[in-house]
Design goal:
single chain, mainly alpha, two-stranded antiparallel ribbon, 9% strand
Length: 114
């Protein structure tokens, strides 16, 4: 990197990953121009790759032409062992809501004084 600019990803895989990495918790919906800028790619390249990601389901586009992570990526992420552990922990917490803070829970999950 020279002059503070990002170098353009060289391989197609690196470009696709740069597009996906342009999304973050603070940037969940992006325009094509925002994706292009954040990924360090030409708009034409971004348009072509975003189109392929959208066709596969990795990205979705709303009526305002803003993109967000698609369901297909969520489905893939759910196959991770870490996702299974998170899911198991969440189920355990739902099964024993009284154990969350030491207070008992009534039938609908509200806390009651013990």
């Amino acid at each position: 990197m020279s002059g503070g600019r990002q170098s353009t990803p060289r391989t197609v895989a690196a470009r696709v990953l740069a597009i996906l990495a342009s999304f973050s918790s603070g940037h969940t919906e992006l325009s094509l121009a925002e994706i292009s800028r954040r990924a360090g790619l030409a708009v034409s390249t971004t348009h072509r790759l975003v189109g392929e990601l959208r066709a596969w389901g990795a990205l979705e586009r709303d009526a305002d032409l803003r993109y967000r992570i698609g369901v297909r990526l969520w489905e893939l992420a759910s196959l991770s062992p870490a996702a299974g552990q998170l899911r198991d922990n969440a189920v355990d917490k739902r099964r024993s809501p009284g154990k969350l803070d030491g207070r008992a829970a009534d039938g609908d999950g509200r806390r009651t004084a013990s």
